[in-house]
Amino acid sequence: MPHTIYDNFYLSNEVEDQFNSHLDLQNFCTIDRTLEGTAGMVRKINVYRATNGTEKLAMGEGNTKSIEVSYTPEEYRILLAQNKFEYYDEQAMTDPNLVPVGTRHMGTDMFNTVNADIYAEFAKATLVVDATAPDFAAFVDAKAKLNVENIEGITTFAFVCNEDMAKIRKTLKDDLKYVEAFAKNGYVGTVGGTNLYVKKDATPGAIYVGTKEAVTLFIKKGTEIEQPPRSSEDANVRLNTIISRKYYLAALTDATKVVKIAIA
Question: What's the predicted TM-score (pTM) here?
Answer without folding.
Answer: 0.77
